[in-house]
Amino acid sequence: MTSCNVTLVLGTRPELIKLAPIIDLLGPDATVIHTGQHDHDRMAARIAVTFGIQLQYLATRWDRVASRGAQLGSMVAALDRRFGVNPPAVVLVQGDTTSALAGALAANHANLPLVHVEAGLRSFDRSMPEEHNRVLIDHLADLCCAPTALNRANLLAEAIPENRIMLTGNTIVEAVHAILPGPVARTDLLTRHRLVARRYILATLHRPENVDRPEILDLLLTQLATAGVPVVLPLHPRTSRRIEEFGLAHRAAALQVTEPLDYPDFLALAHSAALLISDSGGVQEEASVVKTPVIIVRRSTERPEIEYTFGLRVPPSRDLGALTRRWLEDPDLRYQALTDLPSPFGDGTAAHRIANALGQFIQADQETAPP
Predict the structure, then answer these.
(1) Which CATH architecture has domain 181-339?
(2) In terms of CATH architecture, what is 6-169+349-368?
(3) Cα distance between residue 192 and residue 171, in whole Å
(4) I need a labelling partner for 75 at 20 to 30 A (CA). Which of 97, 282, 328, 344 fits?
(5) What is the mean pLDDT of residues 133-154?
(6) Which value, to the nearest 10 degrees, does the dihedral of the CA atoms of residues 43, 21, 278, 303 take?
(7) Residue 206 annotated as catalytic
């Protein structure tokens, strides 16, 4: 039996944030399956409440210390069972996570149409597991929703047919505009954290290349402490474990360390910061929406549209502190320079484009289906 349902498979907080505008437009036609890939302190559940989304958790048989291969295999098996009993009209995945790849593989196995949101991103860095995931998903997808013209060009360069590619923009623009607290709430948040607008840094670190090696994590925490302004560091669970494991609590003590922030609070602090320092792909996108400059601490990035406009990419080094202090010399002027610069990720209508495409996709599939 086939339904008109769109099943969205996700497993991390960033996926849920970016898919929320699409889920809202689909309404009752959307079923949202959470694989359990990331659910630290019920972070996904808290985001779901923020956006008013009902999650269905996938029954998998693995723990979070299992290998990536074991996690992927268990997710695919569980999704395969679910799709076999109640196949949706379309499966939709976002980004490049293990959960997204699991959804793509399960859809392919069940011969279900697959839509990939945020298609065509490429770092050309094969040491990143995410690079393998996003390439595989794009080549399995029946429709690749490319956020930017560069992403579209990447897909065409890999011989993905033009009729399987749609230039949509990125749904992060809608998500940020929908959730960013207003001026009064932002001021109250700054007061609670004892911060002054444009006079602090908001930093996030979680990528293995930065936090899984004690010497690199030590270097980054030390360099952040030399900024000369307060540095707010919401600790990702992975980073928190590494700080404890490597005995670096004394380094973190020089910073304003917090628990992971609710998404509205994070956006509010990002909006009022003088500077963002991060290894997160999502933060690079959010920086272009809230108009805050960002230093990207990574070897490579799949979002080069941000470089030399809203941000600059640098590897972890002893130069980070000096670069940070230079960027803080006139934060108000730097912010003003970005205020009227459009985000490379679109005009805030990506979710509508994708939802409309899903409707057309389902209609075309039903018209060609055997009676």
Answers:
(1) 3-Layer(aba) Sandwich (3.40)
(2) 3-Layer(aba) Sandwich (3.40)
(3) 30
(4) 282
(5) 98
(6) 140
(7) yes
